[in-house]
Design goal:
Helix content is 36%, strand content 18%. By secondary structure, the chain is an alpha+beta fold. Among the domains are: 1-42, no CATH class; 142-217, no CATH class. Strands 3, 4, 5, 6, 7 and 10 form a six-stranded mixed sheet that branches. Strands 1-2 form a two-stranded parallel sheet. A hairpin with a 2-residue loop joins β5 (74-83) and β6 (86-88).
Length: 259
């Protein structure tokens, strides 16, 4: 089952060369798009793969063995993350990438949330053994693409924060920079990847503070900048006058990919 979300390239033509099972539409959020594909599946087991991920013959064979005998509802599948042609195994996490996820599950056992970026995932039923063969994930082509992805993720997260009505505090998000960098670089042993591990930890550390700053300082369409947390006095001071700067034009929306 292939999900096509507003594709403007040859994705549909290519997918038709392999299967007639296509789901086409336009979804603003990840969860509903994924559920459109999940709901269209007719088998008992589902393997969820993104457009930048690949399944090796070894993983395919292992999945066949697992689904033939597993009493569980879902299984974690490890992920090998590549930046360009380099395999980067250590340091991933903290909402920037993942080293394993529940990609193999029985239909009805996995539920995606409604957030714009990194939606929550809930599983029902018992977890089975973690597979040994990894999904091959081509995360980014280069550092510039990684930074563009960070910009996209933080913009989407800022919109989620505005919608929630609680964007957190400046101090809280400054502290999270330190804790997230430490978690990725030391706790998840990103130091083993040298400068690549430092870069991954840096991006993970910047994610919460950039999301907060965008939610507070930038305007969403038709909205004023978020005033931030209420002071202890319960009263806000009148905002200082500010200059209006021209907005830079950038990439519009998300990449249209085949899943």
């Amino acid at each position: 089952m292939v999900v096509l979300d507003r594709c403007c390239d040859r994705s549909r033509e290519i997918a038709r060369g392999f299967t007639e099972h296509l789901v086409e539409g336009a979804w603003e959020r990840e969860g509903p798009r994924r559920h459109a594909g999940i709901d269209a599946c007719r088998g008992d087991w589902i393997l969820e793969i993104d457009a930048d991920e690949r399944v090796s013959p070894e993983l395919g064979a292992e999945i066949s063995r697992i689904v033939a005998a597993s009493p569980a509802a879902w299984h974690l599948v490890p992920v090998d993350n590549y930046v360009g042609g380099r395999l980067v195994r250590w340091g991933w996490g903290a909402s920037f990438a993942r080293s394993a996820h529940g990609a193999l599950f029985r239909k009805g056992a996995k539920r995606w949330g409604e957030q714009r970026v990194h939606p929550t995932v809930a599983f029902s039923g018992p977890q089975g053994e973690t597979l040994s063969s990894p999904i091959l994930h081509h995360v980014d082509r280069n550092i510039s693409e990684m930074l563009r992805r960070l910009d996209q993720y933080t913009s989407a997260r800022a919109a989620d924060l505005r919608d929630s009505g609680d964007i957190g505090s400046y101090g809280q998000n400054l502290r999270r920079m330190v804790s997230r960098f430490w978690k990725c670089y030391v706790g998840r042993r990103g130091y083993r990847e040298g400068p690549w591990g430092f870069l991954i930890a840096l991006c993970a550390a910047l994610y919460p503070i950039l999301s907060y700053l965008k939610a507070r300082l930038e305007t969403s369409p038709g909205a004023a900048p978020h005033p931030g947390p209420v002071p202890a006095s319960g009263k806000r001071e009148d905002p200082a006058p500010s200059l209006t700067l021209p907005r830079l034009r950038g990439r519009e929306g998300w990449g249209r990919e085949t899943e």
